[in-house]
Amino acid sequence: MKTYLTILALVFSLYLQAQPTKLVVRAKAKDAKFIGSSIGGAKVIVRDALTSEILSQGVTMGSTGNTSLIMKEPHERYKPIADDQTARFVAEIDIEEPKFITIEVVAPVNQSQARVKAQTQLWLIPGKHIEGEGVVLEIPGFVVNVLSPQTHEFIKSSSIKLKANVVMMCGCTISNGGLWDAEKIEVQAIISKGGKHLKTVSMEVKDKVNTFEADVDLQEPGTYEAIIYAYDDRTGNTGVDKVNFIVGE
User: Fold this and answer.
1) Is residue 167 in a domain?
2) What stretches in the chain show pLDDT beneath 50?
3) Model pTM score
């Protein structure tokens, strides 16, 4: 009996031995491509859902993916839209038994004013890898960076040049008539002085892709704030950046 119990205990211990389990995680911009190395990647954190212990973390690396496959071709069941070069983070977690995990993605990690946090949860089974396309989390929005005026810039002229760089969350290009059409995305600057709204100015792409521009005439000297936003009513994507500047005598 003692020998039987010893063998049973040994078999049970072998069964519960930690097994390395792979988990592929990707971040995909809403209405666009995957978030990868070209924009700094997406931060991925895998946690024990019960204790919040971090099991693995890293940044997605790789390309934004195949434009035609992602954006143009019909999507079919079980047909992946990501390939081996498409940005991903691969976690390898040693677990002895099924573990309920939380996957957090913060992206684009290098764009603090545009970062979005997305998360999901699932069971991870020892030795049962989740590879291929893996777990894909969608990241909505636009990355908006105010280029002009610069922060706290002192401007003597009352004619102000407004400029903002606007891209998809994967960094994909926005241009007039392009796949991501600038003429169908609303970009406006909300101008205020002393906390009071003065005017809202529409901006558009002129000479350079991604660069939305407008001129605004501000007669009164003082400190101003410009909130520049992008909005696509077809997808619900939004993005914002702000700048404060000074108009002098």
Assistant:
1) yes
2) 8-14
3) 0.90
